[in-house]
Specification:
heterodimer, A: 380 residues, alpha/beta, two-stranded antiparallel ribbon, 14 strands, B: alpha/beta, Rossmann fold, 31% helix, amino-acid biosynthesis (chain A)
Chain lengths: 380, 198
């Protein structure tokens, strides 16, 4: 049984610097770059028990554990990753990495461009999911991992797991694709564009080169996050948590914060704008929009998945309307048509898209059962 | 993953009909015992479908590929003629879309294996004559809580097949784990059909 209370303990980020140029989907070449990552558990002698955790839009390498004894918040997937948890660090060597273009230590728009000594800002190239996967493969080389026991991700992270199975079929035994989609719908791209417009039209954005001016497009980031947050929750979940609750109990007939949901969203927006980089937000949403592994195969996802040799777990959540179960079923359908080994769970949850970060019991059970299978295969 | 040596008699009969190394789809696969056995003993390549997430979890534990889904909605996840065998074991009588699932099975597979409790079994008739809806080992529900909404006897199922130009390739009737050949519609409690378009 999984023990959701145990932790990997105190952790520290590591850095890997790469001097080999990285050609990007856009045609640009990143001459050199840094990836910031964390590891938990021990790589076995056969180097067969490695698991890569790919993060979503606002995630990073700090997946589990704390940075100090009085660190208030644990890593973003601490409820799933740790000793005795489904992604069991007693069995697996777990790697979390901050993707290129991120703002948590890996090279991104807020890093210094070595060519000019200034932050990259608007000059940082747009990177895509395949670019990330290539960079992650180089990190795997550096760590001595030829083949991942599993690559796991939710949402945008699930897209990376799927891309891994296509780009490096020999280097991934299992792909866990959670609350994800084989490509975004028009509605989903539309949400991303509203978020980007909020940032780009903020006067403090200054075309993306706000660093030199000591400003932050805080209002834009805040709006982008508020909008995103609404789409990550379900109507029912939001209703359950906030309903029509008023902070003061009475209508104030004004435009200040009155309903609890307003207070919650503004708080989330403010918190986010304090630490997240606006250019990274633009870049991550673009990576989402561009993701479409079938594109190189004339739109045929089955053809794209043909050469994959991994086994797959696909999971979705009933109340997730940003990455709905229908979208996951498209992936499942293509995997079956391509003759791949695949399990699919459609988890009953009120938590909307955020459910992939929660611990609804059937979800935990499914992850546990699947990862037991992975562990048995690699003798972890 | 545990190794299964013996199967329930009704599942064993289905397993005997499955060709080695074939592609199998098991609808309403439960905890995946049939597919697990077929994978280990006949090297089949299969998927199970079940509505219940806990059954999907059990299938994962048994090393079976399981897809959570609702059979009433059809088999949209599966393309035409993907499988050699499509199995629907003791489920058709509980389905709303009985005729549709039969047609779907033969869309995605070459052969369908359908099993169901025979309503014509003498013990059922006897209970009806006594003034009650039948309750038995194969149909362990009261009338008010039964999931079984579409009862049929052997001839009824065969008529449905004929109506849809589906050929009965093989029929076996069992009672108490044994085959029944004399007066099957009276003496058999479980019916097994192998049907196809051929």
């Amino acid at each position: 049984m999984s023990n959701l209370s145990s932790s990997v303990g105190i952790v520290a980020p590591q850095h890997a610097d790469f001097a080999t140029p990285l050609p990007l989907s856009s045609g640009h070449v990143l001459a050199s770059y840094r990836l910031t990552f964390e590891t938990y558990g021990t790589l076995n002698a056969a180097r067969s028990n490695g698991i890569l955790i790919c993060h979503a839009l606002s995630g990073h390498h700090h997946v589990a554990g704390r940075y100090s004894a009085d660190d208030k918040a644990a890593g973003w997937w601490d409820n799933m990753v740790g000793p005795g948890k489904p992604i069991d660090t007693n069995r697996f060597f777990v790697v979390g990495v901050n993707n290129l273009g991120g703002c948590h230590g890996s090279t991104g728009p807020s890093s210094i461009d070595p060519d000019c000594g200034q932050p990259w800002g608007s000059r940082f190239p747009v990177v895509t999911v395949p670019d990330w996967v290539t960079a992650q493969a180089r990190l795997a080389d550096r760590l001595g991992i030829d083949r991942w026991a599993a690559v796991i991700g939710g949402s945008l992270g699930g897209m990376q797991a799927l891309q891994w199975s296509i780009d490096y079929p020999d280097r991934i035994a299992h792909a866990l694709v959670i609350a994800s989609a084989p490509k975004l719908s028009a509605q989903n791209i539309a949400f991303n564009d509203v978020a980007r417009q909020a940032i780009i039209t903020d006067p403090d954005f200054l075309g993306g080169d706000f660093y030199a001016h000591g400003t932050i497009p805080r209002r834009g980031l805040r709006l982008a996050r508020m909008l995103g947050h609404i789409t990550y929750l379900s109507d029912d979940g939001m209703g359950e948590k906030f309903g029509r609750m008023l902070r003061s109990g009475e209508y104030q007939f004004g435009y200040d914060v009155e309903f609890e949901i307003e207070s919650y969203l503004r708080y989330q927006g403010d918190k986010f704008s304090d630490y997240f980089d606006a250019n990274t937000y633009l870049l991550m949403t673009k990576a989402l929009d561009y993701f479409d592994p079938a594109k190189d195969y004339g739109g045929d996802l089955v053809a794209a998945l043909k050469k994959a040799s991994a086994s797959f777990l696909v999971a979705s959540f009933t109340s997730d309307w940003r990455f709905s179960p229908e979208r996951s079923r498209e992936t499942v359908k293509a995997l079956i048509a391509a003759g791949k080994r695949v399990c699919y769970g459609e988890i009953e949850s009120v938590h909307g898209h955020d459910a992939f970060l929660m611990t609804d019991q059937p979800y935990v059970d499914l992850m546990q059962a699947y990862l037991d299978r992975v562990a048995a295969e690699v003798n972890a | 993953m545990t190794t299964l040596t013996t199967l329930r008699p009704d599942l064993q009969l289905i397993a005997d009909w499955v060709a080695p190394a074939s592609r199998v789809l098991d609808l309403g696969c439960g905890e995946g015992e049939l597919l697990a056995w077929l994978q280990q003993h006949k090297q089949v390549n299969g998927y199970g479908v079940d509505f219940d997430v806990n059954n999907v979890v059990s299938c994962v534990k048994a090393g079976v590929n399981a897809i959570q889904g609702d059979l009433e909605a059809g088999l949209a996840e599966f393309e035409d003629q993907r499988f050699e065998h499509v199995v629907l074991s003791q489920t058709i009588q509980a389905m709303q879309h009985t005729e549709e699932i039969l047609l779907e099975m033969l869309r995605v597979g070459r052969e369908a294996i359908v099993t169901f409790p025979n309503f014509g079994y003498w013990q059922n008739r006897w209970q009806i004559m006594q003034g009650h809806m039948p309750v038995s080992d194969d149909m362990p529900y009261q009338w008010y809580n039964t999931p079984n909404i579409h009862w049929c006897m052997l001839g009824d199922f065969e008529n449905l097949c004929a109506k849809n130009h589906i050929r009965v390739l093989e029929r076996v009737v069992m009672a108490h784990g044994r085959r029944v050949s004399f007066l099957p519609n009276l003496r058999g409690s479980l019916a097994f059909y192998r049907v196809g378009r051929g």
